[in-house]
Amino acid sequence: MKAKGKVFLLDDDELIVSMLERALKGDGYDVRAESDPEGVLDRIRAFSPDVLLLDINLPGRDGIDILGEIVGQGIPTQVVMLTSDDTAETAVKAMKVGAADYLTKPFNLDEVKIIVGRITERGHLKHEVEYLRKISSNLTGQEIIGKTNEVHKLNEKCRKLAAAGVPMVLITGESGTGKEVFARHIHHLMHPSESASFAPFLGINCAALPEQLIESELFGHEKGSFTDAKAEKKGIFEQAYGGSILLDEIGEMRLDLQAKLLRVIEERKFRRIGGRQDYPIDATVFATTNRNLEEAVAAGEFRVDLYYRFTAFSLHLPPLRERKGDVPLLARYFLRGYSEKYNKMALKDISPQAEELLVAYRWPGNIRELRNVMERIVVLENDEIVRPEHLPAEILHLKERAAAKPGPGLTIPDTGLSLEEVERSLILQALEKAGQNKTAAAKLLGITYDSLRYQVKKFGLE
Fold this sequence. Notes:
The chain is α/β, with parallel strands linked by helices.
């Protein structure tokens, strides 16, 4: 399975190295751990990590000096400093040199995972948006890819929201429809000529964060405000000043925090946990969800006042099956983009037969699934054109399955079938029927939620 990202760890404390390496590998990262700083820049450059966890106090070297060399040489990695010094001066010095964040020892492993996850996801999405902009350069201005009426209307609404400078935007849609890409697109329209340092785009996943950490991630905390608060910390509302904040999966936020968020949005100011000083907000707040928030409000799981606050400015992204006219355009975009990425320029186009199958498929995983399919083809195939036989079984045998219309007693065709492909297809269908809600999909399949999560991870459907 493809790693979440690459992490290079440089620390001479064997216990910390072992703990971090085990935790991050267990979380799906490709990790390289070292303790010797001598000649390390060449090894970092060769490994090309998304994140470098760098100890400040190394034998014979100052970690901040190494950070300065990384920044000065333009090595493309985000650096998180590890320090035993809980004074603000050390953290400020590291951030001024170019660190993306810092962690004070002893640190909480959940916090490490959150910071590493946020940085790697931010990097992946940045590349995705850059690809979108590159391919869409032949369209009118900077627009999201698509030629259907649905996409034209969305592009027009994005321009209006950006021009008005609205304080918040709710973006709804199934998993994989591109909610975060649209949020970044509007952010770019709002700040077309500003660098990321002056107009940052920062986000958190409300469903992935442990409850005890999410408030600190949002609003920050003062030193000593709770047990693990070894040093003061800025939350994303403070870090994103002048830019944008993304609250992914807002529908999963607990009710008491929804109340605090509503107050912060309305008053345009906040306080760190344990603090007395008010900090102003100067950022657009984007919220995304694949839940039906009206149903969540009716069930008492989402505050009605926060719902109406967010729905004042909202976008709903249709699933890919409702904009089939965009499938060929998107497929060719991903084909060209991944051909460049993997330096495999032989694949130049898609055959009419393969295109017909791509358009006929329902894409329960939406644009993300289409992107993954095209990446797999680029990596594994060496033909000059994408042909039907290059497509996954669930797409290739679409017409045969439709003609057969198998009931509960599935008949094995003369040509045979792959049990794994059948399992994968059933899981995709259940997720589609359940609107990507894993709990409901598990009930449809008659399995436990944990079993479904395992299968989703096994088949790379996340």
